[in-house]
Structure formats: C-alpha cells, structure tokens
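Why should sequence recovery work at all? Because a backbone constrains its sequence more than one might expect. Tight turns favour small or flexible residues, buried strands favour hydrophobic ones, and helices have their own preferences. The token representation captures these environments compactly. In the example below, the structure is given first.
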C-alpha cells in the first residue's frame, strides 16, 4: 500500500534508575536505565538487546546467564539472563491451512505500519491492547526505515552515507522493533514483518538503487550484486534478533515488489526476474531462521498467457503462482484496492479473491488477503467489504488482514487516516472487524 506518512510527536521516556513500570524496558545491551520492575512484574529477556517488565514472577530457581557479543563492537560482551517465559508454538502450514500447536489457525488481522514509528511505549502498548481486544491475532508492521541522513529521535533502521549503510541497533533503531516484538509476544499477537518497501515511503528500494546502482532503473534492486548483499546484511541483522520469538508469524521479502516503484523500470524487467530474486532471498532467510514462515508480500498479480487484464498477464513483473510454487515460500499474499486500480468492487474484486483461493488449492499452500480497503467516502464500505468477507470465507483463503487498523493513542493522538482506515470507534468496526473475527474463528473448530 502506498500512503502518506503521519507525524508522531510523542517521544520515549528516558531510562532512569527508578523502578521500571509495566511493560517498560528493564535491560539489554547498552541499556543504562532501571532494571527492577514495579510490584507484580518481573524483568523477562526477549533477546540480548531488550528485556521487558511483564506480569508475574520470575522462576525461583537461579537464572542461567549467557555471554552475548554486541553487533556494535565485536569486543563488547554482556551477561544476560535467558528467558524464563513459557514457549508457545510457531506458525506452520498444512496444505492450504496454517497450524499452531497442531490446531487450525484461520485468522483475521490488520496492518498498522505506523506502529513501527511510534516513539512512546505507552502508545505502543495501548495500540496493541486495542488490537487484542478485537480478537485479531496477526498484525503486519513495517520492518524498514532507510534514510540518507540522521532522523533525530524518529525511527531509523538504516542510515546510508554514500554507498555505505549503517544499521542502527540503538534506541532510535532496532531497539524500537525489539520493544514491539516483545510487547506483541506478551499479548499473544503475531507479526508479519517486511524488510523493504517497493515504494519510496520510509526509503524503500530507491535508497538502495540510488546508492549502489544509480541510473540502472528500479529493477536493478533484484539483480545488482551490491544491492543484494546490502539487503541480505540488513535481513540478517533483523532476523537474527528474533529467531526464537513466538511473536513472529512470518518474514516478508518486500512490500509489493514490482518492476517499477519510486523509480522507473529499466525496460527489461520480466516476472522471471522478480521470481528469481524471490527464490534467492527466501532461501537465504531459511538459512538464518528455520522456525518461522517466509512469504513474498506481493499484490498477487497473476501471469497467465493470453489474458488481457493487466492484473492477470504478468503486469509489473509479478507471477503469483510461480512465486507460490517456490519451495522456500511458505504461503502467498495478495492485496485488493479496486478504487486505486479502476476495477469494480463486486464482480471483479470477488473473482480476484476466489481465483487466489483456487490457486492455493491447486498449489497446496495457504494464501492470505493481506491488504485491502474501500474509501470511507464511498458510503458503501460496509456492504462491499462484507461481500469480500463472504468470498474469503467460501474460497479457502486462510487469513484476512484489512488496511488498516486505526485508533486514538493517548500521546500521539489519532493514527494515520488514508481513507481506508477502520478505527476502533467507527460505527461499522464491530461488523467489519469483531464479528468477522468470530466468523473466521469458527473455521478453526
């Protein structure tokens, strides 16, 4: 989804040596704040960089420690306690369905790209509490933030200087993602995290191409050796932090990869080019993390010879079925925005859903409707989306994630409204979200 970024004006409270409040950070590499939690909470290790005060009591037995080498300086070591939190199952697949602990896992979820860019932990906790209260279980957030200059207190995961990217593992960088992953885990929420944006929002592929293949076109991102190396380095830095976290539903290669994006394509881009990149990068992630699923994050365009519809004939270099057949891709994604694509909301849109359900059955892997929306201004949002929901329920699509979840945060205020946002206090929220959750949950019986 392309969108306009919104500004978040709240900031993280600085660490102090006083007791740490509920859900606050209480340890990790380079942490200088408090390490003792308020009454009723204990400090639980999420990973070497982030520990959090969660409800309950730590194990009464001696807590083992492990020496961890910081990625900032190879000579820095710290001793951190290993986690005593109870483990929960990773998401797996069985044919066209997901499984958790051997049980069916059909789900309703949403997108909240803005969560990554909040700077106040109270806002993050509030948003996740609101999300959980709906019964939704899977949330998609951005795992990228690439810039060519310092962003001050704003979230930045990579800062590029010329041809050199520096991965920010500090308090304004990946430690913010650490907090979200930990907070999601504490609430039983699972996350889908893409590593780069096809579009220019928050940097995207354009930053890589400008730095390392300037003038070669957007699709150089998929073939240029230096770009692929930089991408893999970033992926490794993120994935290695959460290989054992139950909060990760899946790693996603990119948000809406196409031949063109913020830059024009070279003119020689084909579906085979992006499928080859998808194969290489998904296989690479599997070498880093054998616990979590991997998907491509595409809009789900088909590549069927002789079809005159741009969304079915390989438009923009996407071949949904070829990508889904890759052994290192565990499930497929597709998006749905008729208002952006000048398609009708009923016949075409519902056919697009059922065609993906049919492809899932043919190939034998799950597929999720990962993004979709109807502008609020149409006045038909409720009717149209309810119709799509019936198509999802009837077609065997394994998961449904609308764009996008909205609420009013205690510090940053109302989250970004791009006309597709469904807010928790909207009059149709219960119908389109809470009631639909119950319908999808019924498929898990």
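From this structural description, the recovered sequence reads:
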């Amino acid at each position: 989804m392309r969108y306009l970024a919104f500004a978040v004006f709240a900031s993280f409270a600085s660490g102090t040596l006083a007791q740490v409040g509920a859900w606050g950070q209480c340890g990790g590499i380079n942490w200088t704040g408090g390490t003792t939690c308020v009454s009723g909470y204990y400090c639980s290790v999420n990973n070497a960089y982030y520990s959090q005060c969660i409800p309950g009591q730590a194990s009464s037995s001696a807590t083992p420690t492990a020496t961890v080498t910081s990625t900032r300086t190879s000579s820095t070591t710290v001793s951190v306690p290993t986690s005593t939190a109870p483990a929960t199952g990773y998401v797996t697949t069985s044919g066209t369905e997901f499984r958790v602990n051997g049980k069916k896992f059909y789900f309703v979820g949403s997108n909240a790209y803005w969560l990554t860019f909040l700077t106040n932990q109270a806002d993050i906790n509030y948003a996740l509490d609101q999300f959980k209260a709906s019964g939704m279980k899977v949330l998609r957030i951005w795992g990228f933030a690439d810039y060519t200059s310092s962003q001050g207190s704003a979230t930045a995961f990579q800062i590029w200087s010329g041809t050199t990217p520096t991965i920010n593992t500090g308090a304004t960088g990946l430690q913010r993602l650490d907090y979200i992953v930990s907070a999601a885990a504490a609430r039983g929420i699972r996350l889908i995290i893409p590593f780069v944006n096809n579009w220019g929002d928050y940097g995207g592929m354009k930053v890589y191409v400008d730095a390392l293949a300037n003038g070669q076109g957007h699709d150089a991102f998929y073939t240029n050796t230096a770009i692929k190396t930089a991408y893999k380095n970033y992926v490794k830095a993120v994935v290695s932090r959460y290989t054992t976290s139950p909060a990760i539903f899946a790693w996603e290669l990119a948000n809406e990869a196409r031949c063109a994006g913020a830059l024009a394509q070279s003119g020689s881009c084909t579906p085979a080019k992006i499928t080859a990149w998808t194969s290489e990068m998904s296989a690479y992630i599997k070498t880093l993390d054998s616990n979590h699923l991997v998907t491509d994050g595409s809009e789900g365009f088909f590549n069927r010879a002789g079809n005159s519809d741009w969304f079915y004939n390989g438009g923009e270099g996407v071949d949904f079925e070829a990508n889904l057949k890759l052994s290192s891709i565990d499930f497929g994604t597709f998006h749905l925005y008729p208002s952006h694509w000048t398609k009708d909301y009923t016949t075409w849109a519902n056919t697009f859903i059922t065609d993906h359900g049919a492809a899932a059955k043919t190939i034998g892997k799950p597929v999720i409707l990962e993004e979709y929306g109807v502008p609020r201004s149409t006045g038909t949002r409720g009717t149209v989306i309810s119709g799509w929901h019936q198509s999802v329920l009837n077609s065997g699509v394994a998961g449904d994630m609308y764009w996008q979840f909205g609420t009013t945060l205690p510090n940053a205020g109302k989250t970004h409204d791009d006309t597709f946002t469904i807010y928790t206090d909207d009059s149709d929220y219960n119908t389109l979200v809470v009631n639909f959750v119950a319908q999808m949950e019924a498929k898990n019986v």
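A few observations help interpret the result. Residues 3-16, 59-87 have pLDDT under 50 and may be disordered.
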